[in-house]
Amino acid sequence: MDNVDHETVKKAYPKLCDGLGLVQKPYTIKLKPNAKPYSLKVARRVPLPLLGKVKTELERMEQLGVISRVEEPTDWCCGMVVAPKKDKENVRICVDMTPLNESVCRERYILPSVDQTLGMLTGAQYFSKLDANMGFWQIPLSKESALLTTFITPFGRYHFNRLPFGISSAPEHFQNMMVTEVTAGLTGVVCHMDDILVWGSTKEEHDMRLHAVLDCAEKAGVTLNMSKCEFGKRAVKFLGFIVSSEGMSPDPDKTSAVQNMKEPSTVSELRSFLGMVNQLGKFIPNLSEKDKPLRDLLSTKNMWYWGHEQQNAFSSLKEELSSAPVLQLYDPNKPQKISADASSYGLGAVLLQKDSDVWSPVVYASRSLTPTEQRYAQLEKEALALTWACERFSDFILGLHFELETDHKPLVSLLGGQALDLLPPRIQRFRMRLMRYSYTIRHIPGKSLTTADTLSRLPLTHSVMPRDNDLMKDTDI
């Protein structure tokens, strides 16, 4: 191929673009020795208007080979929950694997650190990024594991033939499969979950490496989501960086929530911003001098005045918060946690990483609420904030176990272990979107959630970014 692009790849590797892939080696779900089977005897209620659509979706999944009917007795049987998709014509089927996950043995797969990855890219001039199509469903389950995933519906019992999103060990096994089956032994290639980055110092070297990866993927039975693939580019986004022929630079999306934060217009907003600075500013030298023009405005003795001195101090502190040593380089092998919060008109979140007993920011995010979202109950806004934060930071956390922090105590149960069918409809949908992640949700006092709170109160003016609109597309079939 003289020019590597979508069309030439499709012609040269037609199997890579042909629907749902199927790798050869089946996955066996390993259970803890003290596992106690859970079996639901009665199907959870499905609203009458959705029954026909549920039946159609089950038939479609059966035709794809993703699920099969179960006639024999099984020790395990989980419940099914459904929700309408945005098009209102179809439904999303979700199986509540929470009881099974309590007994699943997790795999621990060491991911390459960003330092290691970026160090290998020295001299790279050409890049391609590949995305696996509906990743988990490309992995078959062994017969004994398939029966573990049995779920009950109004139309009978089914089990998964392919690895479902709800299994807690799925992300790390998928990463292991991609490395061992697709990228093992190849030079100029790195894999992070369903993203594969290929690079070369010359176009010829890049193309040779790309062909090697595509050959391995085709041989392994993996298919690609061509709409998300990029070929022969001089710059691509990967792990929070812009990787280009000119070097590496932080992705502006990582810090835009802070860099583009509007200046405070009230004492309350200023106090919130300074609280964030105080919480994250452990590494800012001479912080007391740098924030003094702003702190002076908090005094009741002083009138509110926002001049050049205050603006310069505000801009300088935002820059400090958005660069090293405050902002840390992402390392997937270190503990991660997400703090998220919602105000009346915005969402805010920060991904933090623990290093030497200190939690430091890796990525910031914020956005305004849409008019519809502003009418949500506060509980729903807080659940939205947590769900949106996980999806925005998905590139960093998918496949890892992380902490999820909220100052809204009821969400610990609602987004934690409570049965899906007992949840209010909107909370239920948020929980379904979170099922692909492995997290422990914790309640912390609002005063300890300063950064997320500030970002939610001073959000970026956009409501929904193009990326936010696309967050759920990879879970549709």
Characterise the protein shown here:
With 477 residues, this protein is of the alpha+beta class. The chain has two domains: 113 residues, Reverse transcriptase/Diguanylate cyclase domain (Alpha-Beta Plaits, 2-Layer Sandwich), CATH 3.30.70.270; 227 residues, 2-Layer Sandwich (Nucleotidyltransferase, domain 5). It contains 19 helices and 17 strands. This is ribonuclease H. Pfam families: RT_RNaseH_2, RVT_1. Belongs to the beta type-B retroviral polymerase family. HERV class-II K(HML-2) pol subfamily.
List keywords for this structure.
Nucleotidyltransferase, domain 5; alpha+beta; disordered C terminus; Alpha-Beta Plaits
Which helices and strands occur, and which strands form pairs?
Elements lengths: L5 H7 L38 H13 L3 E3 L8 E7 L6 E6 L1 H4 L12 H7 L5 E6 L11 H6 L2 E3 L2 E5 L9 H14 L5 E4 L2 E6 L2 H18 L9 E4 L1 E4 L2 E4 L2 E4 L1 H8 L7 H14 L6 H4 L1 H4 L12 H14 L14 E7 L3 E10 L2 E11 L2 H4 L3 H15 L1 H4 L3 E6 L3 H5 L10 H10 L3 E6 L6 H8 L8 H4 L8
Parallel strand pairs: 2-5, 13-16, 16-17
Antiparallel strand pairs: 1-6, 2-3, 4-8, 4-9, 5-6, 7-8, 10-11, 11-12, 13-14, 14-15
In short:
The protein is α+β, with helices and mostly antiparallel strands and 477 residues long. The protein is built from 19 helices and 17 strands.
Cα distance spanning the termini: 31 Å
- The gyration radius over C-alpha positions equals 24 Å
Provide the number of structural domains. 2
Give the integer mean of the pLDDT values. 87
Q: Give the low-pLDDT segments.
A: 465-477
So what's the overall shape? globular
β-strand percent reads 15-25%
CATH superfamily of the largest domain: Ribonuclease H-like superfamily/Ribonuclease H
CATH top level of the largest domain is Alpha Beta
The major beta sheet can be summarized as: 5 strands, mixed
> What is the percent of helical residues?
25-40%
CATH topology of the largest domain: Nucleotidyltransferase, domain 5
Number of helices, counting only DSSP H or I runs of 4 residues or more:
19
